[in-house]
Amino acid sequence: MEKYTTISLPYTFHRELTSFIKDHPEMGYGSVAEFVKESVRIRMAEVRNEVRLIALQRLRNLPYRHWDERWDDFRNICKR
Known about the structure:
The chain has 3 helices and no strands. The chain is an all-alpha fold. The longest helix is centred in the middle third of the chain and has 30 residues, at 32-61. The two termini are 27 Å apart.
């Protein structure tokens, strides 16, 4: 069984999310927790893409003799 942790939200923000979820059942969220988990997953995907773009920009600015060196560095940066 997966372990969980909690996060804190300002009460007014939590109340706003609860209201939104109740007013829009067609969105499919059953709770604030479901909404927040999906939101964090989406944002993490965006941030990972941003990190990859930054890595590519850095690689373009580095002097290399061979493409293989660039590719190895790119893979190592993306693993972080």
